[in-house]
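Researcher: Re-running this chain for the archive, since the previous output was lost when a drive failed. Same request as before.
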Amino acid sequence: MESRFNGDQEEIFSKVLRAGRRTYFFDVRATKAGDYYLTLTESKKFSNEDGSFHYKKHKIYLYKEDFTAFGEILNEMMQFVIDAKGEEVISERHQKDFKKEDEEDHSEDSNNSSSSFTDLDFEEL
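Model: Regenerated structure tokens:
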């Protein structure tokens, strides 16, 4: 298994989920004592007026003793949303092929879009 280093924290295992302007990083890291924990990072890209861009990041540290409860609640919350609203993405700004109305081709084909939902199971971590 390849390890990567990020500052003083060793990354043991990493996965990336790209979702539009957001990117989610799932990283297993090692403590100084040699135990493992998980960091979940959301990175969101923002454009500046001058055309440059910057990222805002939000990070959650998740420790082994909280995995089961966190995973159960996360799965319960995701299932609640799916049961209440289905898996179809209804917010246009979250659809991968969304274009502003003035840029949109008004043909029938441009109105048919699909998206997918990834069910995460923290029990596998």
